[in-house]
Specification:
The complex is a heterodimer of chains A (about 230) and B (about 290). With about 230 residues, chain A is an all-alpha fold. Chain A is built from ten helices and no strands. Chain B is globular and about 75 Å long. Chain B has about 290 residues and is α/β, with parallel strands linked by helices. Classes of the chains: A mainly alpha (about 230), B alpha/beta (about 290).
């Protein structure tokens, strides 16, 4: 598994556009939106964990849905199936690499929030850690599950954005989800991202954790059940 | 069972594979001894790739028994995959890694791999070791496929149309690699629709048609069984043709008679039909 993980890290470094979308884009968004609210400390306290949550989803869900579709379409998964590595070790390597990206990204976002905008680190660090870990695992499982629904790599961008963009808008990334119309708020509450963001904001443990775990379990079941090597 | 006789590397008994209503493989049986090169030869759609992919563990079977190095490939045991090398008909690779990185990474999957640089040299890619995969030509990528299948130093190698898309030089290299594998005592199952390739590389050839084996044997015997020698000559401007299993006797008789009559047999030839003629005969669609 470590062997695969090291290789996946090298693959990631070799792909500048993936590195850009994973790391730079959320940070650019953070700086842009934060510049609008530079004097409004309350808004920044919503924005920083919001961007951190968005980064979790981008580095795991979106990145893995893309990646697995590419690997499947290119026949790389089929090739991997022929070599002596257990499927779970292989997937652990691939997912582990995405998790590293997610962790680095979340730390960066909080660090920028603290250093550039003076936003305090969230309360309840234990809960923050648990939400980060559970959120990363759930979105990773959902990303792999979602890749099974994507017919080919050309469609991957459209498919992932069709999920990613609405979800970040109704989950309170840029503003408090309390301001949403009720219907959208209900949908947002049923989805995992809002709860990950609340957890990262230091709201402590709550029922939301069960929602995130539930999505993760569903994602894991679908990811395994419909897994295809080619 | 005699203790000294090792079991065959591959045993296939009454294998069947159905896709919906389509019967791709219909009761196919053969075995490959250890250290043997078997060529599965047949037209496109004959069921060669389906059969090989079942043996490689990529597909499940509808019926029949299959054993690869003593394992059922449907269980995809790790132990089996450590001892087998697979060249797929089409499989991509991570575009942004170099040839050397790819080989070193794949070597890491195996308990006792072949040296990465040695494997690169074996397939003739030493000048492209530091080239990224997406910059390789089509022929070079196929050489990389071959190298990736061999880096684990497998006992058994599956080669599914290994030279399709090769330029002539790459084809020669691939042939040399297969010959080298045989010298090293490896077992090889080769599928191809090139007759010369099957004839050149295989100890035995099995001709597959419509999901069944229609003929099987060493290339020489396959030709011998189906077709005798042919003697042709011209006498007084007329062309004559004889077929025989024993050309020595017939030739002696024909030439003695001609000499007695004081005639000459012009343009005298003794030929055997090529495997190609046998193959075309066996795989011809009924008209």
């Amino acid at each position: 598994m470590l062997h695969q993980l090291r290789f996946e890290r090298m693959l990631f470094r070799r792909n500048p556009s993936a590195a850009f979308f994973n790391f730079v884009l959320p940070l650019v968004l953070l700086l842009l939106v934060a510049s609008v609210f530079a004097d409004e400390h309350d808004e920044l306290e919503i924005l920083i964990p919001g961007i951190a949550g968005m980064s979790v989803m981008a580095t795991t869900f979106t990145a893995l849905a893309f990646n697995m579709t590419f690997l499947r379409e290119q026949g790389i998964l089929k090739r991997i199936h022929g070599v002596p590595i257990r499927p779970r070790d292989y997937l652990a390597g691939v997912v582990g690499s995405a998790v590293i990206n997610a962790v680095v990204q979340v730390v960066l976002v909080f660090a920028i929030g603290k250093l550039a905008y003076g936003v305090d680190l969230p309360d309840e660090p234990a809960a923050v850690l648990v939400y980060a870990v559970v959120g990363v695992a759930s979105f990773a499982a959902l990303g792999i599950a979602f890749s099974h629904a994507i017919p080919n790599f050309d469609a991957a961008g459209a498919y992932t954005n069709a999920v990613f963009l609405p979800v970040i808008f109704i989950s309170g990334v840029f503003y408090s989800s309390d301001e949403l119309p009720t219907a959208l708020e209900v949908i947002g509450t049923a989805l995992p991202l809002k709860h990950v963001i609340d957890g990262l904001a230091g709201d402590g443990f709550g029922a939301g954790l069960a929602v995130v775990v539930g999505w993760g379990v569903l994602g894991a079941i679908l990811a395994v059940r419909h897994f295809r090597w080619d | 069972m005699l203790p000294d006789v090792p079991e065959p590397a591959i045993e296939v008994h009454e294998l069947e594979k159905r896709y919906g209503d389509v019967e791709a493989v219909r009761g196919l049986s053969f075995s490959v001894d250890r250290g043997e090169v078997l060529g599965l030869l047949g037209p496109n759609g004959a069921g060669k790739t389906t059969t090989v992919e079942i043996l490689e563990g990529y597909r499940d079977r509808t019926a029949g028994e299959v054993s690869v190095l003593g394992h059922d490939p449907a269980d995809a045991p790790l132990e089996l995959r450590r001892r087998v090398g697979i060249v797929l008909q089409s499989a991509g690779f991570y575009p942004r890694v170099t040839v050397a990185e790819a080989l070193r990474h794949f070597a890491g999957y195996y308990p006792e791999p072949r040296d990465a640089d040695e494997t690169i040299a074996l397939v003739g890619l030493q000048d492209s070791a530091d080239v990224r995969v997406n910059r390789l030509s089509g022929g070079q990528q196929r050489r990389l496929d071959l190298a990736l299948a061999l880096v684990g130093d497998p006992e058994l190698v599956f080669l599914d149309e290994p030279t399709t898309g090769f330029d002539p030089a790459a084809r020669r290299t691939a042939w040399d690699v297969v010959r080298r594998l045989r010298e090293l005592g490896k077992t090889v199952l080769l599928t191809t629709h090139y007759l010369d390739e099957a004839q050149e590389l295989s100890d035995r050839v099995a001709i597959v048609k419509d999901g069944r084996i229609v003929a099987e044997g060493p290339p020489r015997e396959l030709i011998g069984v189906k077709a005798p020698y042919r003697i042709t000559y011209e006498l007084n401007g007329r062309r004559a043709e004889h077929e025989t299993d024993d050309p020595t006797e017939l030739l002696h008789r024909l030439t003695s008679e001609a000499l007695e009559r004081g005639e000459r047999l012009e343009n005298l030839h003794v030929t055997r039909p090529s495997l190609e003629e046998v193959y075309l005969d066996l795989t011809r669609e009924p008209e």
